[in-house]
Design a protein that fits this description.
With 271 residues, chain A is mainly alpha-helical. Chain A is built from eight helices and no strands. Chain B is elongated and about 55 Å long. The chains are: A mainly alpha (271), B mainly alpha (128), C alpha/beta (231).
Chain lengths: 271, 128, 231
């Protein structure tokens, strides 16, 4: 059933995101043209070129904003508004509902990042561009070859860990929104107001719990733990730090996943 | 066939009456298969269980009979149909008389009125 | 076994009690009218049976279990509002129902849509309010469910549409399934019902068959309703 939910969720979101990517592509092509052909002596062409490049900038902001807005809007509109009557009476579990929303919005986030990278390459593309790009890549890999295997490996893993951390934080952040909406809409009245209250409540609770944790750990002389790092190389210490951050992001996400599930399962109160 | 319902009697008894009228007037001819319960219910706009109950009652009276797989049929027995016709007529006459008596008419006045009305009708027919 | 059963079912919204110790049972093969004035608790009861609300007390069972994933595959629900996503086309809607409900009879739905002259490529957004309600009802009635819960299926539609909706309900009747129709327009549905449940201020006032009421009281359910709920 999750697969079917995903299919229809992609249908619902694709009809918005794909045209956005198309706009991004068109403005990128336009900017490329503008950069190479328009900026020059003619005033009119100059203005036109600048406008097109500005449009490209707006398109980038637009897709970024839209993938974020969609993440919240789909959860709210599809589950907590009128469509919720249809969605929550499907033979589907609450977990599948939440996962379908999380997975689909994550996929669009990744696709958006890739689309922006692709669009930027398009803007920069010119006659010798490909050669320059390949030259750059060649230097890059030659540089890598000069590194020790361990250093190259470390670098790649850092990047990977950082990407995972970013991704998980994003998912966890979406879940915080979902949890606030689910909690707010379990109330009989003033659902949206309560959602906002819950969101800031969560934010406050997180910071409070975080401070308490740090203070508590400090009292327990937990930070002696870091003394263990003394024996580690700096490279290994960064790994440990990143992995700890990933664990924290997972816990952060898991808490809000549990909160969202709790409210949708036990306290659903559709208007 | 026109289906009409009043508000004061159970729906299934009204359905029995109306199917009877259908049989007597030839809307459901003798020996013909009746539409299915669902089709009749949809046509009359009534609950299928109520229609089922009415047809079962008619079956008990013998005006319709069912064949296991083929469905329900109108009886071919003309005496039975005529009996039904007569009982329907008696019922009409009875309600008519009740209404007339309530209006304060006497037996002979009613008869005079009826013959007069029938005479006028005949005259209408003759002139037309 | 009743397809819908509640015992002492209670639901509160803040300080108001929407349902107060409601107990009733609905058997398969019956078409039941859930009748009451606006705000009497009809919609609340139906939403509880669909798991869209959580009860504050008592117990509700649908096809033998608490409302949830299993009951959803057996219950076909028509909400009192348009819940179908308006961006979908008729065809996408058919895909949607076919994907999620194993008992969805796509051919039946296609035939009914065709009968109304709705093109498969037409988006719900482009349809009139009445057409949307008909399309939603077609989806709901095209399932071979065990329990149909229809919340105000004839509220706010013109008489021709109302006739169409009622004949669709009768035409899809299945002796193993029960149909619950909530409405305050009693005269229109009375002939279609086996049984009626009168509900007022969150309490069940009466559960009886239509013909018993007519036989015992010598009046229609509509007339009785007006008498019981006289202001």
């Amino acid at each position: 059933m999750l697969r079917k939910l995903l299919k229809h969720e992609f249908r619902a979101t694709g009809r918005i995101m794909l045209p956005m990517y198309l706009v991004l592509l068109v403005t990128a092509l336009g900017s490329n043209l503008a950069g190479r052909k328009m900026l020059g002596p003619s005033d009119i062409l100059n203005i036109l070129g600048v406008l097109i490049i500005m449009a490209f900038g707006f398109a980038i902001c637009g897709v970024l904003l839209m993938s974020f807005v969609l993440m919240i809007q789909r959860f709210y509109k599809n589950l907590l508004q009128d469509e919720g009557y249809l969605m929550f009476t499907l033979p589907v579990s609450i977990h599948q509902h939440i996962w379908s929303k999380v997975i689909v919005s994550s996929v669009w986030f990744i696709a958006t990042v890739l689309a922006i990278i692709a669009a930027s390459l398009i803007v920069a593309f010119q006659g010798g561009f490909l050669r320059e790009l390949f030259d750059f890549l060649r230097y890059f890999f030659e540089g890598l070859q000069k590194l020790k295997i361990s250093e190259a490996l470390n670098g790649t893993v850092y990047l990977l860990e950082f990407a995972i951390l970013m991704f998980l934080s994003l998912v966890a952040f979406s879940l915080q929104f979902y949890a606030a909406l689910a909690a707010g809409h379990s109330r009989a009245n003033h659902k949206m107001l309560w959602s906002v209250v819950w969101f800031f409540g969560f934010q406050f609770a997180l910071q409070f719990a975080g401070s308490l944790l740090i203070m508590g750990l400090d009292r327990m002389n937990f930070f002696r733990f870091f003394d263990c790092f003394d024996g580690l190389t700096p490279a290994a210490a960064i790994h440990v730090g990143l992995l700890l951050a990933i664990v924290c992001a997972v816990i952060y996400g898991a808490i809000f996943y549990a909160v969202t599930t709790f409210f949708l399962k036990k306290h659903l109160n559709l208007e | 066939m026109q289906w009409q319902f009043s508000n004061d009697a159970p729906i299934y008894t009204q359905l029995i009456q109306q199917v009877k009228v259908g049989i007597v007037t030839g809307a459901f001819p003798p020996g013909e298969r009746l539409p299915s319960v669902r089709d009749l219910a949809t046509e009359a706009g009534v609950n299928p269980n109520t229609m089922q109950r009415a047809l079962a009652e008619l079956e008990r009276d013998g005006l319709v009979y069912s064949q296991r797989t083929a469905g329900r049929f109108v009886t071919e027995d003309n005496t039975m149909i005529n009996q039904a016709k007569r009982s329907l007529a008696e019922r009409h006459v009875k309600t008519f008389l009740e209404a007339m008596l309530r209006l304060g008419f006497q037996r002979d006045e009613i008869i005079t009125l009826i013959t007069q009305e029938l005479g006028e009708e005949e005259a209408d027919h003759a002139s037309a | 076994m009743p397809v819908l059963e509640c015992k002492g079912l209670t639901k509160r919204f803040g300080r108001t009690t929407a349902l107060d110790e409601v107990s009733l049972a609905i058997e398969p093969g019956r078409i039941v009218g859930l009748l009451g004035p606006n705000g009497s608790g009809k919609t609340t009861l139906i939403k509880l049976a669909n798991g869209l609300l959580t009860p504050d007390g008592g117990y509700i069972a649908v096809c033998g279990g608490a409302p949830g994933r299993e009951s959803h595959s057996l219950v076909s629900y028509l909400p009192e509002r348009t819940a179908i996503p308006t961006w979908m086309t008729a065809r996408q809607l058919l895909d949607f129902y076919g994907d999620f409900y194993q008992d969805f009879r796509r051919e039946a739905a296609e035939e009914m849509l065709d009968h109304l002259g709705i093109q498969p490529g037409q988006a719900v957004r482009q349809m009139s309010k009445g057409t949307r309600e008909k399309v939603q009802l077609i989806m709901v009635m095209s399932r071979a469910a065990k329990l149909y819960l229809l919340d105000e299926p004839i509220g706010g539609v013109d008489p021709a549409t109302r006739d169409y909706i009622l004949s669709t309900i009768i035409g899809n009747y299945n002796p193993e399934a029960a149909v619950v129709i909530s409405t305050h327009l009693i005269a229109d549905v009375e002939k279609v019902l086996d049984e009626v449940v009168f509900i007022h201020q969150g309490r069940v006032m009466l559960q009886s068959t239509v013909d018993d009421i007519r036989e015992d009281k010598g009046m229609s359910v509509d007339a009785l309703f007006r008498e019981v709920f006289k202001c």
